[in-house]
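Objective 1b. Sequence-to-structure analysis of CLIP domain-containing serine protease.
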Amino acid sequence: MQPGLLILGLAYLGLPACEAQRPIVFGESTPSGCHCVPFTDCRQLLPPMGQRLSYVQAAALRHRRCGFVNRTIKVCCEGGQPSPTVEDTSSPAGVDGEKGGHPTDLPLTCGNQFFVERTFTTGGKNAPLRSNPWMVALGYMVPGRRGQLELSFQCGASLVTSQHVVTAAHCVRPDDLGFRSLTQANIGEWNTETDPDCISPLVSGRSFCAPPVVVRQIAAITWHPQYNSNGRYNNDIAVVRLDRPVTFGLFIQPICIPNNFDLNISASSVLNQMALAVGWGATETLVSSPVLQEIRLPLVDMQRCNASYLGILSENQICAGGEPGVDTCRGDSGGPLVTTNNQRQFILVGLTSFGRNRCGSNGSFGVYTAVYKYRDWIVQTLAV
């Protein structure tokens, strides 16, 4: 896999803490004198026929977002007619505490993966269908070749409640996204090119299919107040609230966030604890994979890893990898690094944050945000 690493538009300049902590909330209000309509219905914001969006147009579009209808971004448009809001009639899920209609605490039942067997080779491989029920694909609207907006999945995330996911801050902060705009989260996703996802067992020849992918729009985004405050990608973590809850089942489950995690790694050990990294990022072909990939990576002694990065890392980061041909890569940003606890629950210990430009080179360690160090902050942010 060399699943991808993360440098999706990372910026070195951080925002002041008060500005960074202020959540971005979508669809709650629109400026006076305009109507919230699908982007394609607002002629004054569309580029001329056959031309791409300019930087100025993309910036204006980002500041005019006011919601979504199905998979289409809505913008504040002068003179447009308001479009109807699509309501969800499905039943909500989860037993988490709620405030304002969404969970405000982490679920007690988490980290369950039902009856999935894995066999690993040296590099990455297709993840078994149903093997990572907390995995979420983040979809962005990006300018296409002809100026139209296209949906592209460019970051991963992990489901932590029925209505929240955690991901890397650089996957959601507008200043880091450039021309891209985060629009949706696909839960229960496996192959981003098919829906539903199916596999054909080798023995019986009969297809086994997952339920249709659950698509949710983005309701609010909160990144850590000290994200990138020293220009070294520190505190690279964010909580995203979805517009509606999802229903837990065999293909959709929340991951556990531990209170602490003991790396217990020796710099000279050849038997380091292994963790599982998952994502749709670049493979050895340097092209993103439509099928979810997973790979086992050794956790690395932080003193050794920090030395390879000239001492810029902090205690809130962990390292994994370093073996040739085995790494996360571009497009895996925000995705989970998981292992299991004594109760055989899967726990989220890291979020793919950054690494070397050349993924999978010998001694090239991937750097991950140590999620367990932010558990209290995550719980506090659920109420936003």
